[in-house]
Amino acid sequence: RFKQGYYASVSYLDDLLKDLFNSLTSHGLLDNTYIVFSSDHGYHLGSKRSIKKSSLWNASTNVPLLVSGPNIASQVIESPVSLVDIYPTILDITNVSHPTSHTLDGSSLFNVNSGSSSKGVLSAGSWQELEVGEAGKAHHQHHALLTSDYKYILYSSGEDELYNIIDDREEFVDLTSASFNQQFRRIAHEVLGMDVDSIRSPISSFQNLFYGDFEQGLNGWFPSVADSKRYVQSSNSELNTRHLVLADNSAGICENKNVRLRQEGEYKLNFQAYSESEGAQLRFNLKFSDGNSPTTLMDQIFSINSTVSSYSHNFNIPEIPVDAIKALRIQLLTGAGVHIDNIEIINILSQEESLSPCSQASLVATDIALSSVEIDTLKSLIDQPDFNCVSLSGLAQQQWYKVIPETEFGIIITRLQSNFDPIIQLSDNCAAPNDGDLQCSNLRNDNLEALLISAQPGQEYAFRVANKKRILSQTIPGRTLYENMDHLIPQISDGILTTNHPVYSNINIQSVTFRLYPANNPNNGQDYTVAYNENAEYDLNSLNLVPGNYGIQARYMINLMSIETPFGPPTLFEIGNSNLAETGDIELSKFLVSPNPVPLGATSVTISTPPTTDDYTARPLKISLIDILGRTIIEYPLTQWSNHFNFEFPSNLGKGIYFIRVLDMNGDESLLKLMM
Description:
Layout: H1 2-26, E1 35-38, H2 58-61, E2 65-68, H3 86-93, E3 121-125, E4 142-146, E5 150-154, E6 160-164, H4 182-195, E7 221-223, E8 232-233, E9 243-246, E10 253-256, E11 265-275, E12 280-289, E13 295-304, E14 309-317, E15 325-334, E16 338-347, H5 348-354, E17 362-363, E18 365-366, E19 376-378, E20 398-403, E21 409-416, E22 422-427, E23 439-440, E24 443-445, E25 448-454, E26 461-467, E27 476-485, E28 490-493, E29 496-499, E30 509-518, E31 526-531, E32 538-539, E33 548-558, E34 571-575, E35 580-582, E36 592-594, E37 604-608, E38 620-626, E39 632-637, E40 644-648, E41 657-664, E42 669-675
């Protein structure tokens, strides 16, 4: 019957349009009249289990838009357009100039080429109740971005949805969890953020009760009496925000059916309240119904104090149908004038996940000049956890970044404008930063901050930047980047010591420290510090070392805050009775690799068996190059073997640690660690 009534209205509209066209024709006006036909919204007729208009799905947002008139060719525009495009279209039809005082939100349909426009259409939805002259809050609204192929929806809770509207016009398959769509998901959110202030980060919502702050009035709440205005009160001396008021037990029931429980598990009810009378009691009852008798999930009574207090209650929810109706009822049992605010139903596990930097971090610029990094702004997000290094508060402006280092160590550099004092915090556990290896920077020079980190190449690290002075501002401009850094690798030839020569965009090497030690006693070493010269050569024979085996390592100091790097891997060498020579290859299992470390610019290494090996079955069948994550980069099957093999690298191989895996005829595997 509902659909019958709707389509009856459509038929009635068709008759009215027929009357309009007949009248224009009879008066000779049809051929010189422009007609724009559209609607303010669509309507759900049961699609997605909904009968309403207030959604951002296609059934609500997809409306007809037809324009006819003189000199308008018949065509269909496949690109997404919006109702805000009608005004500039009418300006073009009537040859009226566009305003110069401001930019129009829409674009003329005459400028949209069928099927070729990449323009996205923004839309928003909210039931927020506002006082006269009060501006709506963006983070209380829902927003959507429509492109030619996709629709991205971001709800006020932080939940988001992504649909392929070409293959899934009914929007049944949410693609937000698909790994191959994460880049588009992030870009869509960034595009929304350009036009909408203060939107939430796209995260899996842990807040399972919408509109519990009453900033949108009774949106989502259903009171027990018709006079709903008495239920919401503006700020007072006790609560500084709009909130719910239950007058007495005759008008003291309010219910919310906007409860989304998507999984079983442990939940927590939180709220704030105070009572104008003594002995007030509130009852919170949560039920669900899937067509059968309602089932109680939580039923708890609270005694309410006369001053504002926080209340909470933990409860467990079993597995229930996702599409079941869930409702939270608040009932005033005794007392009068109870004020309630900030009601939450929290999924505890999802809350922990949502507070991770993974959900808020963006990739940081790497290995370029700091001056060329695009200016970013620090921000405090609603769902962002507190800064827990050096007593910084979560109220400080801060920004999450992530980086995937290419080498074993590197440096984070950030610069804020002069009146702020930056600080950096690193976490090596993106899923749970407070349980990870937290490290805060302590290298500071006015508005410049740096943090040297040891890293596992290929692993994702999260870090955030904040202003130490806790100055709250809408925007704090700054630049942040990550510089991959290389170890100095000693190389010895005929008693002469040289090193590789790292070159960086933002830092210079000032001095080098060599640590020389007996191979059998690494802790008994001697340090030698010299000024850095990339062409320098050091004569080890001048040290008059006694014959034996030695190791040597190198580290260096950079000009940025005199930071010292860690010592790099050792080079082993031997001093005989009359000469000094680098030992060269280090045997790992049955095979040798040379040179290792690989010099800058080298395109191959040689893999060989020791001269003493004459076991035919130890000869290799297959040699593979794998990265630090265990992924095979290139593989060579061998049909012949002559005690050595020249292993060539792919041309695009980056710096870092790799492994050469050798499979021999016995079925045994050997791993050779390779440092590029």
